[in-house]
Write a structure and sequence with these properties.
Elements: H1 11-15, H2 18-32, H3 39-42, H4 47-60, H5 66-69, H6 74-81, H7 88-104, H8 111-132
Helix pairs in contact: 2-4, 2-7, 7-8
């Protein structure tokens, strides 16, 4: 039996746990509310929402279920972005500020972690832009929380509402 995979830490463990993620998100949003591009969207976000975001990311990265055990859900997070009309300019600035904050906090910078971290951020921010501009939320309210690890890719995003064709085999 191969036990090597049993010793691989989760992204949550590798980053340093909930305290590090809370610090990352808090310091990041301190920048967001000072940023000319993002301030109009995020200036009214409460500190408790920032902690919810940190707990969401912690759970996605394999940490404790602090977000869902306190009433959060994937559907609920998607609803937070609905009709915010986020753009690619917003998304890129959000990404830049978060990565800048990660560097300032000396988060792990090994290629494997940063690849997984950046991959999640790209995936999540692109979905946020899509969902923020949608006419409706076509999602099961009981959709499970996303889980992110060291390199899982679930295939292409198929948005049937926008007319993207399915790539299922005939």
């Amino acid at each position: 039996m191969d036990t090597s995979k049993e010793n691989i830490p989760t992204l949550y463990q590798w980053i340093g746990g909930v305290e590090i993620i809370e610090t990352l998100i808090t310091k990041f949003y301190d920048k967001v509310v000072q940023d000319d591009i993002l301030k109009p969207i995020f200036q009214h976000m409460s500190k408790s929402h920032q902690i919810n975001v940190a707990h969401f990311i912690s759970e996605v990265f394999g940490g404790p279920k602090l977000y869902t055990e306190n009433g959060g859900s994937h559907f609920g997070m998607v609803k937070k972005h609905f009709q915010k009309n986020l753009t690619e300019v917003h998304r890129k600035r959000w990404m830049n500020l978060l990565l800048e904050t990660a560097d300032e906090l000396d988060l792990p910078d090994d290629p494997e972690f940063r690849s997984a971290f950046l991959s999640y951020l790209e995936w999540g921010t692109r979905l946020a832009v899509i969902n923020s501009n949608a006419d409706s939320i076509d999602m099961n309210p009981d959709e499970p929380m996303p889980k992110w690890g060291w390199g899982e890719v679930g295939g292409p995003y198929i948005n049937t509402a926008r007319g993207t064709e399915s790539f299922a085999s005939d």
